[in-house]
Design goal:
Number of helices: 6
Strand order of the largest sheet: 1-3-2
Mean pLDDT: 92
Number of domains: 1
Structural class: alpha+beta
Strand content: 15-25%
Number of strands: 7
Largest sheet: 3 strands, mixed
Order of helices and strands: HHHEEEHHEEHEE
Distance between the termini: 10 Å
Low-confidence stretches: none
Shape: globular
Bound molecules: zinc ion
Length: about 200
């Protein structure tokens, strides 16, 4: 099951572990930085819901002048990307269908790409907000870890995966999961009974 459907704790643990500087993050600081990123995604979802009440995703993206392009690359594993310079979200339809939908068919109630694509649009919308909404800003900039000490100098590096935690949190708080899954879904707990 994709971490999108697991509990918040499992999602944060998995994503943080993938960070290149994970081993430099003090164990005692992991929860605080994960919670920070999670709450940021949640607050950003609230903000966009308030600004565009009841609006469908495609309308929100067009209001924000975000272009959406669908590509059909075969073996390409990335589901979606946001290109800051041209304000464009690229969705890889084949990858989403072959790797995401098929791997989560026990959870999803639909295989309609037009319904499922909003998960990826929401994820990338958060990355847009990090770049273009100064109130939100880049999540990974807020927490830096010291990776080296040479003489008296510390090298401080941002924890990139915090932006991913924020994007997953945004998606989970923004998208209506009742369209996507028949199971009970809670933004914090995930699918009922998920680890
Ligand atoms: Zn992302």
């Amino acid at each position: 099951m994709n971490i999108l459907f697991t509990s918040k704790e499992e999602l944060c643990r998995c994503l943080l572990k993938r960070d290149m500087v994970y081993r430099y993050i003090p164990v005692s600081g992991r929860k605080e930085m994960s919670d920070y990123a999670w709450n940021k995604g949640k607050q950003a979802a609230r903000k966009i819901k308030d600004r565009f009440p009841e609006a469908p995703m495609d309308k929100i993206l067009s209001e924000l002048s975000i272009n959406v392009r669908i590509c059909e690359q075969g073996a390409y594993q990335i589901f979606s990307e946001f290109y800051q310079n041209r304000k464009e979200i690229v969705l890889n339809r084949n990858s989403i269908r072959d790797n995401f939908i098929s791997a989560n068919n026990e959870v999803l109630r639909t295989d309609d790409f037009n319904v499922i694509k909003q998960l990826f649009q929401a994820h990338e919308l958060f990355h847009y907000l990090e770049c273009f909404d100064s109130e939100i800003g880049l999540t990974y900039h807020q927490h830096k870890v010291s990776v080296k000490k040479i003489w008296k100098f510390n090298y401080l590096v941002g924890v990139l995966m915090l932006s991913e935690i924020g994007a997953y949190s945004f998606t989970r708080h923004f998208v209506d999961f009742t369209e996507l899954t028949a199971a009970f879904f809670d933004a914090e707990k995930g699918i009922s009974g998920a680890v």
